[in-house]
């Protein structure tokens, strides 16, 4: 329902006329889509109605007519937040508010709403980024630099099935490795800053309990393993696995009698450069079982990193406040509509059901792809131009056709070849962080191109979040 009726017993405005002290019955029109409603005679008098005439959201104007019966009424019209230049009956209307139009008894009162939408380019879309924790700085102390892990949610990022769960010992938290067969990771979110020294030793202590214990008479199952992996903080690329445990299968979570004794780890005999920030990750290899690792330092969980005395040839790169910076991508909208790129589509049948019983010849599964370029970044500071020209085949009867469109927005952009697909897939990767610098190494961009963006529902390949280019 697009028009909501609030009768005299509700939250009407001041009393007037035939209502004799009662609140004025009010109709609230919350959306400007075409609609018609008959109003209750008890509140508005016999024959009362409200009609909204528009082609919204494919037009910018609407006419709302309230026909009051024998009781004076009021019409409240919601003005969208984006409609900063809206008018009602020619008078300026504040966006994000309701405009009240009095409606005398026994008369039809019309209100003409003109929204005057503008093309908007909004930033801040996409990933919010991942903040880096406080860095673990180089120290020559033999004890190394302890990595903070007690604030589990902030200090550890569990992915791939790993999660933080309650411990078998109440009041504590465990790292659970997921299900049998899964490999998962918990990254310590504190970058290692070695000032050019090499990471050459990692120490850790922990207790564990092994899940999915075979029952009596069942064959043995290979227990989970825990590995320590050093990652490049900027790319999350694995630099080196510095330690891998034996199968952790001796202390059952299911037939619980307690966690394992404290397991002490000393990984050494490697030299990983630490001029650029590095992260330490706990990799959980489940094999046929899973494992829970107690995280509370009070129970013995401890991780520390150590550096060599010598330094590498590369100058130190101080850690950023971000492990993954915010995407800060942009969208293009006008009025209530979001706009998207409209590349030519290739529809390939991947499954049909003509031979299955019952036969369903129209039930076809398609893979929809394109050979056209799609990986564009918007020109910074270039506003879009609204072009009120429908394509030749567009009809209001099918407004969101994937072949035709009612109008479009023209924007200027450049192709960003470094933005591609997820590895091994035809799924578009997340947009790169903006602003994109076309002059940076490996980030060459194509020439300035004019793109035609159509309403979001008018394409199957809906690329509507774009990076944007650094302004020169």
Explained architecture:
The chain is mainly beta and 472 residues long. The chain folds into 3 domains: 3-117, Immunoglobulin-like, CATH 2.60.40; 130-323, Sandwich (Jelly Rolls), CATH 2.60.120; 326-458, no CATH class. Helix content is 2%, strand content 43%. It has helices at 41-44, 152-155, and strands at residues 3-6, 26-29, 35-38, 49-54, 61-67, 73-78, 87-88, 91-92, 98-103, 108-114, 119-125, 130-131, 136-137, 145-146, 156-159, 163-166, 173-176, 183-193, 197-206, 208-211, 225-232, 238-244, 263-273, 278-285, 290-294, 302-311, 322-324, 329-334, 337-341, 346-353, 360-369, 376-378, 385-387, 408-415, 448-455. The strands form 8 sheets. Strands 11, 28, 29, 32, 33, 34 and 35 form a 7-stranded antiparallel beta sheet that branches. Strands 3-4-5-10-7-8 form a 6-stranded antiparallel beta sheet, with no helix packed on it. Strands 13, 15, 18, 21, 22 and 24 form a 6-stranded mixed beta sheet that branches. A hairpin with a 2-residue loop joins strand 7 and strand 8 (91-92). The longest helix is centred in the N-terminal third of the chain and has 4 residues, at 41-44. The radius of gyration is 32 Å and the shape is elongated. The two termini are 50 Å apart.
What does this entry show, briefly?
The chain is built from 2 helices and 35 strands. It has helices spanning 41-44, 152-155, and strands spanning 3-6, 26-29, 35-38, 49-54, 61-67, 73-78, 87-88, 91-92, 98-103, 108-114, 119-125, 130-131, 136-137, 145-146, 156-159, 163-166, 173-176, 183-193, 197-206, 208-211, 225-232, 238-244, 263-273, 278-285, 290-294, 302-311, 322-324, 329-334, 337-341, 346-353, 360-369, 376-378, 385-387, 408-415, 448-455. 32% of the residues are buried.
